[in-house]
Automatic annotation (TrEMBL), chain A:
The lineage of its organism: Eukaryota, Metazoa, Chordata, Craniata, Vertebrata. Coiled coil: none annotated. PANTHER family: ELONGATOR COMPLEX PROTEIN 6. Gene3D superfamilies: P-loop containing nucleotide triphosphate hydrolases (3.40.50.300). Keywords: Cytoplasm, Nucleus, tRNA processing. It is found in: Cytoplasm; Nucleus. This is Elongator complex protein 6. Pathway: tRNA modification; 5-methoxycarbonylmethyl-2-thiouridine-tRNA biosynthesis. Component of the elongator complex which is required for multiple tRNA modifications, including mcm5U (5-methoxycarbonylmethyl uridine), mcm5s2U (5-methoxycarbonylmethyl-2-thiouridine), and ncm5U (5-carbamoylmethyl uridine). The elongator complex catalyzes formation of carboxymethyluridine in the wobble base at position 34 in tRNAs. Involved in cell migration. GO terms for biological process: tRNA wobble uridine modification. It comes from Callithrix jacchus. GO terms for cellular component: cytoplasm; elongator holoenzyme complex; nucleus. Component of the elongator complex which consists of ELP1, ELP2, ELP3, ELP4, ELP5 and ELP6. Belongs to the ELP6 family. The gene is ELP6.
From TrEMBL, chain B:
It comes from the Eukaryota. InterPro entries: Elongator_complex_protein_4 (IPR008728), P-loop_NTPase (IPR027417). One of its GO terms (biological process) is tRNA wobble uridine modification. This is Elongator complex protein 4.
Length: 266, 394
């Protein structure tokens, strides 16, 4: 996790809020550093994490996680982390017919499928074990990323249904958190992606949006992060709070600064 | 000339060094262990595969794309286990050249090749590969590149003789001493004996598809399914995924897929506005990447993206690939006669570089890149046209 981002979000692993949906979004840049942040954050908070990693392999997250101070291999061995490696599972489900429904069953179907098997996988991974020996604080679902599901033929409605079920089970029933990443296509007309993004924006409690700079590529400032706190269930008597920072990604951390205050400029 | 003599001396030393890779099991996404220090370590854990080198940033195993200038732009080379997507230029001239450079590099390094095409027999593609410039041709190559240089710059380069081997680049970074990438003569064909000595598998779509198509609801077009099965078969049979432990010498599988997405593959994404309702191509890319990540292979795909009208689809394909490079040639466009671009044949756009095992990636600072194909060299340079405008004002 990045200590500077924790300060900006005003959280620490000990006293993070529960029952929240966090939406990570990137436009014209790569927002995967936010995924690494939240993965290490929740592992350090001693939560039971189910990570649906659709875009990269396990060793990628493991190596970056080690730079951020968490060991994914050990977390997986002691049962704290349930890792669904999308790329590897896709090969399994595609080449061999499976007896029982596989979480990525939709890859075999010709028409648009649904994500029910995936939801059941997540639910079984995160439901509290009655023995209670492990003592994890609360469950967390992390998905990297949802736009891949749209690329693979699922409709925006199917993905929204999946998130709805996950929220109902994890956020409301089990008092856990859900963090998802969606790419914003920007000026490219992608109707399904826009439906998904708008639908999730209305349900989220916290939106983190990483954007590339409007003026183009810069070596010292990699992008701009907009943070938006929302209260979707309550009436909007309070205004949603929003902050904008610019950031630079380094080898082991990300530094944040106010707009125009990059150390390279001052 | 003194410069050529020192150059020749260096080339011999350079050619004999072999890159070292550290491997304990098959996936290339392993960090180098602390025991790996040099080539002199004896021990069964160290395996050196010819034609590969670890990345200086994160120990990732890299192979050359066949174009040393492109290797530099991609941060040292193409990572094993990843996909390089080339967005074809309009007449598929330069993209097929890059495709051939990639395959020729595989032959020179002794890698196994897998060539897939829907419109050209892989055996014919291999016949047309460019001839490698090996060390005995060094002298000829140097004279060709430097006969237009002013005497002043020649004197400057005498001091930094090591860099004479590089094509002109605005940023010159120090190269490692091992012979990683090779240069090719685009006007000559690769010697027949090199092709015969190499191991390659061809996938020619018209041969693999049976004429009587069984109409069954599949999640992918028939051609894509066949290709994935073919690739998976080769990977499994020849042990690129580590499933065959008695194979002593590990090798890289270089996969080349030409014109993916064109109608010849049975896909309608290039024909219609809202094609690919079955999302064939994206599913294919996803499963392909899954196969690559779990094996010692690297893949180059050329795709006619200029024919795809659905721009959102191109964004999906970009997100599902690792490295994406776009080529834009000036042939037939208004830029051909533009004095700004008169030295170049086209522009090369590095659209995406993956962040593998890392928060950061090796993004080059230089974004305006032009390429030109001289007889023996495909060079990529910062467009000097902008420099021309600056000097005109001062």
């Amino acid at each position: 996790m990045f200590p500077e981002l924790n300060n900006l979000l005003n959280t620490t692993p000990d006293r993070a809020e529960q029952g929240k949906l966090t939406l990570l979004c990137d436009a014209k840049t790569d927002g995967s550093f936010l995924v690494h942040h939240f993965l290490s954050f929740y592992l350090k908070a001693n939560c039971k994490v189910c990570f649906v990693a659709l875009i990269q392999s396990f060793s990628h997250y493991n190596i970056v996680g080690q730079k951020l101070g968490v060991n994914l291999t050990m977390a997986r061995e002691r049962g704290q982390l349930v890792f669904l490696e999308g790329l590897k599972s896709a090969v399994d489900v595609f080449f061999q017919a499976q007896e029982k429904p596989h979480p990525l069953q939709f890859l075999r179907e010709a028409s648009a499928g649904n994500l029910k098997p995936l939801f059941e996988f997540v639910r079984d991974a995160l439901k509290p074990v009655d023995s209670g020996a492990a003592g994890w604080t609360y469950p967390v679902l992390l998905v990297d990323d949802l736009s891949v599901l749209l690329s693979l033929g699922l409709g925006a409605v199917a993905v929204l249904d999946f998130i709805h079920y996950c929220r109902a089970t994890l956020c409301w029933e089990l008092k856990g958190n859900v963090v998802v990443l969606v790419h914003d296509s920007g000026d490219v007309e992608d109707e399904e992606n826009d439906i998904l993004l708008n639908g999730l924006s209305h349900q989220s409690h916290l939106i983190l949006r990483a954007e590339g700079l409007a003026t183009g590529f810069c070596r010292d400032v990699h992008g701009q992060l907009r943070i938006l706190w929302r209260r979707p269930s309550q009436s909007t008597s309070q205004r949603d709070q929003s902050l904008t920072y610019q950031y630079k990604i380094q080898d082991r951390s990300v530094s944040f600064f106010a707009k125009g205050m990059s150390p390279a400029v001052l | 000339m003194a410069t050529v003599a020192t150059c020749g001396g260096d080339a011999v030393g350079v050619g004999s060094a072999v890159a070292t890779a550290s491997k304990s099991n098959v996936t290339s996404f392993q960090r180098r262990g602390p025991r790996v220090s040099g080539t002199n370590d004896s021990g069964p854990r160290l395996v050196s595969i010819t034609g590969t080198r670890p990345s200086v940033r994160n120990g990732q195993l890299l192979v050359s794309t066949g174009l040393p200038a492109l290797d530099q732009l991609l941060g040292g080379g193409l990572a094993v286990g990843t996909v390089l997507l080339i967005e074809e230029d309009k007449y598929n001239i330069y993209s097929s050249l890059l495709f051939k450079y990639f395959l020729a590099e595989g032959i020179v390094n002794g890698h196994t090749l897998l060539v897939a095409s829907a419109n050209e027999d892989p055996a014919n593609i291999l016949q047309e590969l460019p001839a490698p410039l090996l060390d005995n041709c060094k002298k000829e190559f140097d004279e060709d590149v430097y006969n237009h240089k002013t005497p002043e710059s020649n004197i400057k380069m005498k001091i930094a003789w090591r860099y004479q081997l590089l094509p002109k680049m605005e940023q010159i970074r120090p190269v490692s001493s091992s012979r990683f990438g090779h240069y090719y003569d685009a006007s000559k064909r690769i010697p027949q004996e090199l092709i015969e000595a190499s191991k390659w598998h061809g996938f020619f779509l018209p041969e693999k598809i049976s004429p009587t198509l069984k109409v069954e609801p599949c999640s992918l077009t028939h051609g894509y399914i066949k290709l994935l099965q073919f690739i998976q078969n080769i990977i499994y049979e020849e042990g690129f995924d580590g499933s065959n432990p008695q194979k002593k010498q590990k090798n890289i599988l270089r996969i080349g897929i030409q014109n993916l997405g064109s109608p010849l593959w049975g896909d309608d994404i290039c024909c219609t506005e809202n094609g690919d309702s079955g999302h064939n191509l994206t599913k294919f890319l996803y499963v392909l990447r899954g196969l690559l990540r779990t094996s010692l292979s690297a893949c180059i795909i050329t795709m006619p993206t200029h024919l795809i009208q659905n721009k959102a689809f191109i964004a999906h394909v970009t997100n599902l690939s690792d490295t994406v490079v776009g080529l834009e040639s000036f042939i037939g466009s208004e830029r051909e006669t533009n004095p700004l671009y008169k030295d170049y044949h086209g522009l090369i756009h590095i659209r995406q570089i993956p962040r593998l095992n890392n928060l950061v990636c090796d993004e080059s600072d230089v974004k305006d890149l032009g390429f030109k194909l001289k007889r023996k060299l495909f060079t990529i340079e910062l467009e000097s046209g902008f420099a021309f405008f600056h000097s005109a004002h001062f």
